[in-house]
Amino acid sequence: MTCTGIICAGNWIVDIVHTIDAWPRKSDLVHIRDEVVGVGGGPANVALNLATMGFEDPLFAVGLIGTDRHADTVLTACMQAGIDTSGLKQSGLAPTGHTHVMTVPGDSRTFFYHAGTNDLLDAGDIAINVIAPQARIFYLGYINLLGTMDRIGPDGKTPAALVLKQAQNAGMLTCVDLVSSDTPDFRAAVTASLPHIDMLFLNEVEAARSTGIAITGPSDRTGLAYAAAALVSGGAATVVIHTPELSLWQSASQSRWSTPDPVDPASIISPVGAGDAFCAGVIYGIYHGWDPDRCMHLGHRAAAAALRSATATGGIPLVADLLQ
Question: Are residues 191 and 209 in contact, defined by beta-carbon separation less than 8 angstroms?
Answer without folding.
Answer: no
